[in-house]
Amino acid sequence: MPMNKYFRRILATCLLCTAACVNAQVPSVMIDPAARGFTPQPVLRTYALTPAQLNPTRIFSPGVKGLAMDLGDSTLYGRLHFGPAFFDHVNADYHETRFRSRTDITKGKAMMDIASYFGATSLSNVNHWTDAGTMGFRLELLRIRDGVPVTLGMYDGRVDFRKTAGGYASPLSIIEGPIVGCVQSDNPRLMIMGFETDRASTGMIELEEIGVYPDLAVTTHHEIKIGNLEPSHRYRYRAIAIVGADSVMTPWMWFKTAPMKGKGKVVFAYSGDGRASTGGGENEYMGVNRTTITQIAKQAYRKGTDFFLFGGDMIGGYSPSTHDFTLMLKAFKTTFSGYLHSVPVYCAVGNHEALYSGYTNAEGKRFVIDKFPYDSMSAEAIIAREFIHPSTTLRAEAGMPSYDRNVYAFQYGPVRSIVLNTNYWSTSTGIVDIVGGSPEGYMLPDQVEWFEREMKAAEADPTVKYIVVLAHEPIFANGGHANDAMWYAGNNAVRAYRAVNGKMTPYGYGIIEQRNRLWETISRSRKTAVVLGSDEHNYHKSLITNTTPVGVPAVDDLNGDGKLNDGRISPNPKFKYPTWFMVCGGAGAPYYTQEKTPWSGAVKKFTAQNNYFIITADDKKIGLEVYNVSGLLLDAEPDLLAVKKK
Questions:
Q1: Can you give the pTM of this predicted structure?
Q2: Which DSSP letter does residue 536 get?
Q3: d(CA 521, CA 242)
Q4: Residue 160 dihedral angles phi and psi, to the nearest 5°
Q5: C-beta separation of 410 from 397 below 8 A
Q6: Which residues are paired to 226 by β-bridges?
Q7: How many CA atoms lie within 13 A of 397 on its CB side?
Q8: Cα angle 482, 484, 488; round to 5
Q9: Which among 326, 289, 182 has a CA at the least distance from the CA of 588?
Q10: Which CATH number does the domain 175-254 belong to among 3.40.50.150, 3.30.750.200, 2.60.40.10, 3.30.1330.40?
């Protein structure tokens, strides 16, 4: 079909999708933007394939020499790379795909030559396959547009294969995972393991010492609770999927359970902002900077970390397409897969984890709101489905997205980690007071109150020796987000709105009041070792005290307009104990340099290098080291609580 007709057909489909979304019931807490004169925008997609189009059962069919691939789109060209998944797993403990072969993709079709990995003269069969195995693959795609090749990016996957009488087939594949999740001292005898298959199957996790934990539900998305475990114990396991007489399994892997609450030593990593950067190739891998994250994940793994906190902006995001949004989240998990097979990753929600419905006003300015229906299409709902995070005791207000798995707390040994969502129910600032929603960096009262309860409980719990707080938006921005985050250049008028009886009603306090309330709670705790942030693509460390000029609306808004721009920025005397605030946005997003803020004098260190933290806690102290991706030590605080003892 001629290219102009092809793209007209895509646009028509997108407009139909938009109409369906607009006609969906608007939540009662919002006002339909279309009813306020805003024009809905078509749901245009960024990526050439959807997660379903990468499904092996859809794109691979049996062949004499291997698996025949058909993407179902004759306009696609490029290359198919493939090689052993779980490469040399007998000798490796960090499992990855290593590409060994390639072939051209022509009119959406290619042949994965598996036969070349067998035979007496083959030098490729590193995993010692006999009649079955798992092949990793990568699609490098392009499309010819007006005679010019247009790059469409890289797409990775896995496919299980089996020798047959007529050649090779793929009866069933484990295409994602296994992923280790919810390893925590809150219940050290229980954890969750997840994996996905390319077709509906039953599944199980087999522990070498104990036996099998089955999931008898016939589904593609398996989450299996593993119980009766010993704390602080290392187990070998493998994932198994079954359809009728067909079954596939992963190699043996390992995970370690958490210690009892308050016991043992813990080492964990922290980084954030791993969204795609410039530079091409794996720097721009499906919305993820795979180059940098891979370096960080491998170094953190080799340092023996017990878990990884990730501060948000995992992906490029800001997508109107659930397909693209899901694909990017899966790309993030694929990038971390070697780590996730054995060690959990707990993520905060960043502003780029935005799945939205888009609108324009009469002047053509673009605005976005969190996609609805919230229970199935919001960013919060998709993240809860894709990540094995702890559940939460926080219940959202009626009609709003769920907080489950995107606001949570967990304990590992002596450390209590509290993960906030500073991008919940996200709406563009310029439209929030017209249709409802929450601006970037604003936390609704229910989340702030939940945080206060969590802090109070942790402070009173003798098994909690240290508290670590994680919020994506920098509470005290220093390099890239002083005009938003939790400061908005001193504009306390920024706040969330909701519809009450059809009328837009603001929440009762502004963004800076909210920030100060949050930090007052933090500063009253003698156990809070560090508050972690991301969003700014650098590393900076600030010590916030009751003499740090931070802005207090009640005394600094001299003319009553809500803006702290009248020449006075005061310290907050309600900040009790000095507390470290540290930003690590160094996982690969485009770098930011330092900017001037009222609290610049509190900044003790700043660098724009890619970076990650290693945090170590035991009975005596909790300390932190900052490394760049070459392993150079950039900074360190050997005792984070020492500042509270002075």
A1: 0.95
A2: S
A3: 50
A4: -85, 140
A5: no
A6: 191
A7: 17
A8: 80
A9: 289
A10: 2.60.40.10
